[in-house]
Amino acid sequence: MSFSIRLTPEEKSLAESYAKLHSLSVGEAFKKALFEKIEDEYDVTVADEAYNEYLQGGQKSRPVSELWKELDL
């Protein structure tokens, strides 16, 4: 699959500079940035769901010092 995007001269220059800095082609740089953004948003969604599940479960957190005492550490 391929696609094209329109960039202003400033955006093009920035993209080329970024790609050069990371020894990538401009296409590879955009692909890398896109998938990193997708992964980041996925991670946030999973974390939010896990936190909501934790809250709905009625569990309470406790200081780590209590765990250390429990484990005789």
Please tell me what the overall shape is. Answer: elongated
Biggest beta-sheet profile: none
**Radius of gyration of CA atoms, rounded to a whole number:** 22 Å
Structural class: mainly alpha
Low-confidence stretches: none
Number of strands: 0
- Strand fraction equals under 5%
Give the ordered list of helices and strands.
Answer: HHH
Helix content: 55-70%
How would you describe this protein?
There is one protein chain. The chain has one domain. It is elongated, with a radius of gyration of 22 Å. With 73 residues, the protein is mostly helical. The chain has helices at residues 9-21, 26-56, 64-70. Helix content is 70%, strand content 0%. The model has no long low-confidence stretch (mean pLDDT 95). It is built from 3 helices and no strands. The longest helix is centred in the middle third of the chain and has 31 residues, at 26-56. α1 (9-21) crosses α2 (26-56).
SSE blueprint:
Blueprint (H helix, E strand, L loop, with lengths): L8 H13 L4 H31 L7 H7 L3
Helix pairs in contact: 1-2
Descriptive tags:
73 residues, mainly alpha, 3 helices, 70% helix, elongated
Task: Give a summary of the structure in a few sentences.
This protein has 73 residues and is mostly helical. The protein has one domain. The protein has three helices and no strands.
